[in-house]
Amino acid sequence: MSELPRCPQCGSQYTYMDGSLYICPECAHEWSIDGEAETADMGQVVKDANGNVLQDGDSVVVIKDLRVKGSSSVVKVGTKVKNIRLVEGDHNIDCRIDGIGAMQLKSEFVKKA
Questions:
Q1: What are 62's strand-pairing partners?
Q2: Are 46 and 109 in contact (CB under 8 A)?
Q3: What pLDDT, on the 0 to 100 scale, is given for residue 40?
Q4: What is the CATH number that goes with domain 1-38?
């Protein structure tokens, strides 16, 4: 029986095959069997509160009431934000919210719609 490779991210020996992917159960890293680095070329990976990977143009839903700095308005829980743009920095989502305008959000306070 052939030896499965160790996880390139954490070095775990407990990797397993699932279809055309190797999967590490310790750090949840996935990579293709033919050796292509899929996630390494992506650079910045932004995940929502549930761990789903976000991309430009996605729609997200706010999961917590968020106060708008410098204003008395609040972004209510359940507010759907369409067509997000990912940016570098602490607040890594750039968006426009109806009734409030352009603002930046942290990805930890949204979930993919």
A1: 110
A2: no
A3: 44
A4: 2.20.25.10
Residue ranges covered by each domain of the chain: 1-38, 59-112
DSSP per position, the chain: -PPPPPPTTT--S--EEETTEEE-TTT--EEETT---TTTTT---EE-TTSPEE-TT--EEE-S-EEPTTSS-EE-TT-EE-S-EE-SSSS-EEEEETTTEEEEE-GGGEEE-
DSSP H or E segment with residue 108: none
d(CA 24, CA 55): 24
What pLDDT digit, counting tens, does each position of 59-92 carry?
999 999 999 998 899 999 999 999 999 998 889 9
The pTM of the whole model exceeds 0.85:
no
What does residue 91 show for φ and ψ, rounded to 5 degrees?
-95, 95
For 59-112, CATH gives: 2.30.30.40
pLDDT, averaged across the chain: 87
The pLDDT value recorded for residue 31 is 83
